[in-house]
Amino acid sequence: MDVADTHGNHAVPNLARMYDYYLGGSHNFAVDREAADRALRSVPHAKTFALANRAFLGRVVRHLVAAGIDQFLDLGSGVPTVGNVHEIARAVRPTARVAYVDIEPVAVGVATELLADDPYASITLADIRDPTAVLAAPGVAGLLDLDRPVAVLAVAVLHALPDADDPAGILAAYRDACVPGSHLAVSHLAATTFSEQQTDVVRDVLDRTPTPVTLRSREQLAGMLAGYEIVEPGVVLLPAWRRDDSGPADVADADANGYAALGRLPVPAP
Ligand SMILES: C[S@@+](CC[C@H](N)C(=O)[O-])C[C@H]1O[C@@H](n2cnc3c(N)ncnc32)[C@H](O)[C@@H]1O
Predict the structure, then answer these.
(1) Do 218 and 259 touch, CB atoms closer than 8 A?
(2) Residue extents of the structural domains in the chain
């Protein structure tokens, strides 16, 4: 069974579909809802992460567009839901191009339908751990011009990659394909207020999916931005990244249990 078949198994819960459920989407199955509800019973802030993360995605895309970025490579893009990257970007820059990549067939199927008549957005079913294949895929190579700055988004996906997969090395391969002025946006699940017992529940629930979770610290996430200048405000708690009124109200920043950051590849002085 190849990796996409594993992710397409509807008999086991899946990260993409659990996340869709937390965001109020409809592209999830009973097995996903049961797993997500099991986590919520012990870890109410599991959903806070999802909501705060999606709000961060919106803020960082708006920031990038304002900074002149008009093409995006969205790694682990998830099930399309409210506030998709191409919609956010095009509200300001109608010609923005977005190449989405995900390994989960339901996410890819929904995106394929949504983007069917869109010449400037694509969805590729692929494993982001294979940067060579991702970058050569028609939906990516045929849409993005990597001779111009691009924003790579690795938002709420790196915790699905165990240390053994060398997530920093994978990000470095994408970085090396990008020109100066390109960006990398990241967010990551972290145990900032999860108790040890809650962390065990999160691990146990996600260990039953095709993507067991690896929680990482602020320092570990910063280490994945090697080669990039870290844009203000740095590597911070998710809701604190260029805060506005998006995201869940009335929760402490640490209760989102995640960090976020944006890096920019330095442009050499003329
Ligand atoms: C929590 S969702 C995040 C969705 C979106 N990036 C966001 O922040 O709203 C994580 C996504 O990463 C995808 N994913 C996990 N491992 C992957 C891999 N190795 N290759 C491609 N996609 C992957 C999952 O299928 C899921 O859709």
Answers:
(1) yes
(2) 3-264
C-beta of 57 in contact with ligand 1 (< 6 A): yes
pLDDT digits (tens, 9 = 90+) for 171-194: 999 999 999 999 999 999 999 999
For residue range 209-256, list pLDDT tens digits in order: 999 999 999 999 999 999 999 999 999 999 999 999 999 998 999 999
List CB contacts of 167: < 8 A, sequence separation 6 or more: 158, 161, 224
82 contact partners, CB below 8 Å, separation of at least 6: 23, 24, 54
160 CB near ligand 1 (under 6 Å)? yes
- Superfamily the domain 3-264 falls into: Vaccinia Virus protein VP39 (3.40.50.150)
Q: Is the CB of 78 under 6 A from ligand 1?
A: yes
- Whole-model pTM: value is 0.96
Using a 6 Å cutoff on CB, does residue 16 contact ligand 1?
Answer: yes
Q: Probe ligand 1: pick from 157, 158, 202, max atoms within 8 Å of CB?
A: 157
